[in-house]
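Thread: iron/sulfur cluster complex, take 2
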Amino acid sequence: MNKQTAEKIIHWYEENKRELPWRDTGDPYAVWVSEIMLQQTRIEAVREKYMMFMKELPDIPSLASCDPDKLMRLWEGLGYYSRARNLQKCAQVLVQKYDGKLPDTYEELLSLPGIGAYTAGAIASAAFSRPVPAVDGNVLRVLARVHGIEEDIRDEKTVNRIRELLLPVYTEDIEYGSFNQGLMELGETVCLPRGACHCDICPLHTECIACHDRSYDRIPYRSKLKPRRIEERTLLVIQAGNRFLVRQRPHTGLLAGLWEFPSLSGFRSENEVIQALEKDGMHTLKIRTLPEAVHIFTHLEWHMHAYEVQIRDPGTLPAHTGMYNKRQLRELALPSAFRVYTDYYDLR
Ligand code: SF4
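Output below.
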């Protein structure tokens, strides 16, 4: 790519960019938080969460010292909770080593926990005007189409090839932040996935190979992922009076440290549930079926059958397990995997 093309993108971006709360703030912390939230999450879902997050945790020291349960609540609905935990870990490193500020070079940013090549590039270019690329899925799509690259973009070699095509632009005297953001914005609003591109309003249509050949429905080519593993679970919404039994998940692995309704593996009948609870010293007074639910993680699907079970007061409970009323439960971080049930009981 050359300077002339880069300037077309910058000009288009300045004319067409969407108003987003983290844009043009000049605040590296705002760029960082928004970039982490936007990973694997749509802009519409992020907008409101971002506003709330920045109101509660307006700077790096407040994020570093935030109570982990509060942090999980602020992240609720965005999924991929390890992102929030890494965000806080990184904020703590920044307080200890960088005086509570983000460093201004790509290399230092990349050395921080939870900041990969894309995020380091996005922060360095948007907040500190550094000449480095920020290549995400949107940028890959636009560039693969413009250059007619038909190789698999899941392959690291293809990604490197596309990245190298971009590099000459960063030796030119241009606005690097606007250029990177313009490429991403083009991918998000004009050069859409699955052939749904609006070439007629694209600033690159005169030089784009995929537009010329009408090959945009097969570019970019992405090989298929392995199918997700399906895990069948029977979820138990156990109640004693107006209190619900929940337990905290282990501090490592999937949904680490978050709270959940207990569950049994596989789909279980009412009798099997009653017997399993009896073994744990819980006597069932009443049981009824709840709606089914499916939650999709990156490599895994939970297919959930569920029961509401009324029990006698269970007495002493195991560690990391507790009985809470609705008001207390709303203070705990129950992940969106259980949204069907948290909505059902008005626990959000
Ligand atoms: S001309 Fe069409 S295919 Fe090419 S980058 Fe623009 S929108 Fe995408």
